[in-house]
Structure prediction request, 363 residues.
Amino acid sequence: MSPIYHRPDLAHDMAKQLLSPGVLDQGLRSGLFLSGLRRTGKSTFLRQDLIPALENAGALVVYVDLWSDVSADPSTLIHAALRSALKELQSASGTVLSRLKRIKSLDVGGAGFTFGFEIADLGTANSVTIAQVAQEVIGQAKTDLVFIVDEVQHMLTSDAGIALMQAFKAARDAVNLTPDTPGHFIFIGTGSHRAQVVGMTVQGKNAFEGATSVDYPTLGEDYVEYVLQTLHQEGVKVIPSQPVASHAFGLLGRRPEELVRALRTLQKYQPQEADLYLPVIAATLKEAAADIEIKKIEELGDLACAVFGRVANAEVEASGLFSASALGAYSSMPHGCREAGRLLLPRGLWCPTCCRWPGLSCP
Ligand SMILES: Nc1ncnc2c1ncn2[C@@H]1O[C@H](COP(=O)(O)OP(=O)(O)OP(=O)(O)O)[C@@H](O)[C@H]1O
Ligand SMILES: [Mg+2]
Prediction:
């Protein structure tokens, strides 16, 4: 069995909504932004399921992961991905053209695409715009062009990245607002930083203001069932029941790697102990993961701990992090974050009597 659990139905439905949106899904033409927690399988779903589904439906897809090289400027990575996609389209024997000929009955004779610009110039001062590139590609391919940027929030880290978001928007409008366009320009952004990814679609100076923003659909019970089935097939000795494994998967934030880690640890026990120990292992792993995150904050210093404390104790959404009362609370916090091995939150929020966290709900 494949180590990857595929979700072809979900991918097929999403591809259909994106490429042939109904009246209620027209917002997808403005862009789709998917956000989800770290290590929950976003990139795997894009690469293993969604991209094949889009391609099988006849779309051209350009994919770039901005975390593939965090030291590179996002615009450099995006232009490199675009150049490589265009070179592939120039090749008469390329797999992309063969697929378009097969699925869309595209007739380009014996040649590949020819462009009225130099591919090598893309990303330089002499370059044509993304809008011009998209129009030429869609004009020749007579199909939709889907541009997928993974970890899209990283584009906000450089001026060139922000300018490129504007260029994507211009490409979207140039193509999609052309009457009788032979294809559409569809932009998909995904990312692990929910607030930033959602923020890219809200009102303000954002290029993709008004685009659709949804939560990444995490793996569910069917994935857990698949993992258990694989364990049975491989003759693994200690296997938990489906409900216990599903509960553990939920506890672990629906992260496949964490579930596998918990199941590996479970192998130390007897088969009849599986349901007894898996919840304990999952709870321990969850706590260890939280500890690592807290440690990262502690390493940033006392002020970071104080700010984190304010965010963690906020009843609804943390605001006023720079207000006078917030600054007063930070400065009254004792030195050192940990006291008796626990995170010490700013005075006033941390209960001085019972030392419980959060102090607001102490008995
Ligand atoms: N459908 C799946 N079946 C089996 N394993 C999976 C599946 N999806 C993800 N994984 C595993 O989970 C881990 C995280 O996957 P992936 O990198 O796709 O997540 P991500 O959300 O993009 O993570 P990041 O936040 O680091 O970008 C990988 O080890 C991957 O192999
Ligand atoms: Mg990823």
